[in-house]
Structures are given as C-alpha cells and as structure tokens.
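Researcher: Sequence recovery benchmark, item below. Answer with residues only.
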C-alpha cells in the first residue's frame, strides 16, 4: 500500500491523465466491439494466449496453448476456448463461475503486436462443441465460451523492449530453477525435485491431451 503521506503517489484519474496525456486517434479507433475480419485473421494465427479472470479469491492469469488456431471463432462476437488437461487447480474456471468477466492476450511467435480481447465467459460441455474442439482424438475437459465486449491490438513496443522473439533468445533456456527445483524448495524437499524433473518430460508427452 502507498503511504498516505507519499507526495509522489498518483491518487486520482485527473493526475494520471495529466501524466500520460491524450491517447492518439489510432489508439482509440483500433478498438472494436466485435471480431472485425482483420482481427479474426490475426486471432486464427495465434497458438498461445494468457487468460485473465477474477473471483472471490482474487485475480488469476494462466497460459493457454494449442496448434493455431488456439480458439475457434463461433461468430464475430463469440470465441470458443478449449480447456485441456492441466494440474486440476481450475483456478480460472472457479473464477468464471463467480464472475464471468475475462480478458485474453493473444500472441503469435515472431510477431511484435499482440491482440487483446475483453468479454464475458461461460463454461459448457455441449457434446458438439466438445467434439469440434477435440485434439489428438481427445475432447477438451470443457469449453469456455467467450462473448466479446471489446477487441483491439497492442503495439509492439513491449516485445521490442524485451527482445522476446530475438533470434539470440531462440532455443536458449534461461538460468532459472527447474520445475523440480522449485517444488523441492517450496516443500522443503518433501517432493523429490530431481525425480520430478526426470519424470516430467515423459509425463507431459503422455498427458498433453
């Protein structure tokens, strides 16, 4: 929390707008209330997105990925996101049951721009949709149907600053703890991190779908 006597804190909308100025015409006009054909073309090329939700326990943002297209376009106002196998925490799904508001950030490898979708979601296991979104012969565990409220693209500055798609970064693993190392540390070695890392690739291959 910001200390109440912090003279540098931005505390109201007027101060915030004064700091940043007026958005450009392009920044305002790129927003649509439906999936414009150019946005549909973009979204159908995306294999990856981050899904943001909110619920009684707070916020959640989690990755979603499939061979492109990640989502199926039902119509210009509706997206279908398959919920594949995961860790069964179902944080996003719990939140959607409590509050249907969601946001999606779509990425395409090598492309600097991203696409943002805000909308309202519901969870369905309708058989036709489940079969339509099957992968490797296996249907998703459920489908998140998203009614679009707004959609617009984000400029490439964040990707340029991060060099996320730079050739030098391709195929290079950052010097960060492995999944097993993190679990061992968090559980005070109750989980054998080395064994977890050894078994993980095979487990991921057999449980991908």
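Model:
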């Amino acid at each position: 929390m910001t200390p109440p006597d912090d003279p540098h804190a931005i505390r109201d909308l007027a101060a915030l707008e004064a700091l940043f100025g007026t958005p450009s015409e392009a920044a305002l006009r790129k927003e649509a209330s439906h999936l414009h054909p150019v946005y549909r073309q973009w979204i159908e090329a995306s294999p990856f997105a981050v899904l943001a939700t909110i619920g009684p326990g707070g916020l959640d943002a989690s990755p979603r990925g499939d061979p492109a297209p990640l989502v199926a376009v039902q119509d210009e106002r509706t997206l279908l996101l398959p919920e594949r196998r995961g860790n069964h925490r179902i944080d996003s799904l719990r939140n959607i049951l409590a509050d249907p508001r969601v946001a999606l950030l779509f990425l395409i490898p090598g492309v600097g721009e991203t696409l943002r979708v805000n909308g309202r979601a519901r969870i369905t296991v309708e058989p036709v949709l489940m079969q339509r979104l099957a992968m490797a012969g296996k249907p998703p565990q459920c489908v998140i149907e998203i009614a679009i409220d707004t959609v617009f693209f984000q400029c490439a500055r964040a990707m340029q600053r991060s060099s996320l798609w730079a050739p030098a970064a391709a195929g290079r693993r950052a010097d960060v703890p492995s999944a097993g190392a993190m679990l061992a540390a968090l559980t005070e070695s109750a989980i054998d991190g080395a064994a977890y890392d050894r078994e993980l690739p095979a487990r991921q291959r057999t449980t991908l779908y």
